[in-house]
Amino acid sequence: MLIYIIVGIIALAIGVFAGKLLFAKNTQKQVDEARQQTKKIMADAQVAAENLKKEKLLEAKEKFVQLKAEHDKEVLEKNRKVNEGEARIKQKEQGINQKIENLDKQARENEIIKDNLTRQIEVVNQKRTELEKHQEEHIRRLEKISALTADEARAQLIESLKHETQTQALAMQQEIIDDARQKANKEARKIIIQSIQRTAAEQAIENSITVFNLESDEIKGQIIGREGRNIRAIEAATGVDLIVDDTPEAIVLSSFDPLRREIARLSLQRLVTDGRIHPARIEEIVEKTRKQIEEQVMEIGERTVIELGIHGLHKELVRIVGKMRFRSSYGQNLLMHSREVANLCGIMAAELGMNPKLAKRAGLLHDIGKVPDEETELSHALLGMKVAEKYGENPAVVNAIGAHHDEVEMQYVIAPIVQACDAISGARPGARREIMQQYLQRIKDLENLALAYPGVEKAYAIQAGRELRVIVEADKVTDMDSDKLSFEIAQKIQTEMTYPGQIKVTVIREKRAVNVAR
């Protein structure tokens, strides 16, 4: 059909072309030529149409053959898959049949085993019955022989085992405790030695008097004044006793308060330099000096907390820290002692993996109760705890201040660190001053306290009174009594005696067996 349409279109085109030729050239010759040409074109077109028809038929046949081949291939593939599926199903069916046969076989075997077990259980039950009868007969014979019932014998056996087990447990417990104590002492000694080695401290001995040097003895008369009014005004304004004696070119300022002595010294220095010494001038100079000392106290406190790296401290606590510069404890400057304790606490806390800044803070503030603004009956540890709590300090710091002399219970790990560092600083050689007579008396009292206990043969205070060795009589004091005696002596020393640092009590019990071969 397509071919005929193409041929028709070609013929129409030829006709139009021929018409144009006829109209363009109105001659017969041209018309004939045109007709011949038209016939030729028609013949060529018919040939071309036949060739195109053949080509299309060939293409259609080739397409049909290709589609048929693809269809046959798909059919073969589907048949192959169906065959494989049937083979797998047959294989599974064979496996299932095999499993069913195995299960049937196992069930038959289980029935046989069950029958055998039933027979064996019956035999065991029969033998158990016989055994129980023999056991009852045996128990009756034992009860008859031992004159004890089974319950009584069982109770005795349990009691014996219980006592033996307790003894072994106590021995094991004591061994574990001794081992743990030895390891803990070794580790603690290592940390303490490292802390002491890494901390340098000055030796500062404080006295209760200050000597004020004069250029000449004539100034003594000006200081005393007419009928002693000037010296009385100075003593009233400063609270310090002025001792004017035969000592050449010197006046002694006596007071247990170093802050007052410093105010009196500076005031006298200004009065002597100015030369105008009378009661009104004395009061003015003392007041100015007191204000200057207050500023100096704040400056010392601020410098101290900055050097130690402590931040956020209340201004009143900073002022108290500054006041510690003018206080002493057993001849040891309180600020120097507190700084040393703070540094030791920081190092020790860092070694133990704790917060060194918090430990430093507690170490610096642990003795703030020794510089009260007003008199109180509380101990310095409890007073310092109240002051720290008043100004919003950390609860761990507050507890460490109150517990460093065991007056309150230790609730934080930082508290024993502060207590240990306080003892280290106070026990350091040269840290505290002690008169020889007082020292000898303390040693004697220490030995007499131990000798007062029954069974104590000898007592020796060694290491400058840091350790008490107590030798007891072996036939009067047992090993358990030795532990108890050591604890009691330590508690009595703690409650009845005053001493710097800590005292170790060692009770020695020795049993000797001596014979002579003749």
Task: Describe this structure as you would to a colleague.
This protein is mainly alpha-helical and 518 residues long. The chain contains 15 helices and eight strands. Strands 1-3-2 form a three-stranded antiparallel beta sheet, with helices on one face. Strands 6-7-8 form a three-stranded mixed beta sheet, with helices on one face. The longest helix is centred in the N-terminal third of the chain and has 119 residues, at 28-146. The protein is flat.
Entry summary:
With 518 residues, this protein is mainly α.
Span between termini: 155 Å
Low-confidence stretches: 200-207
Rounded to the nearest angstrom, the radius of gyration is: 58 Å
* Nearest-integer average pLDDT: 79
Oligomer: single chain
Shape: flat
Order of helices and strands: HHHEHHEEHHHEEHHHHHHEEHE
In DSSP terms (H or I, runs of 4 or more residues), the helix count works out at: 15
Strand residue content: 5-15%
Strand order within the widest sheet?
A: 1-3-2
- Structural class computed from helices and strand pairing: mainly alpha
* Sheet with most strands: 3 strands, antiparallel
- Number of beta strands: 8
Helical residues, percent: 55-70%
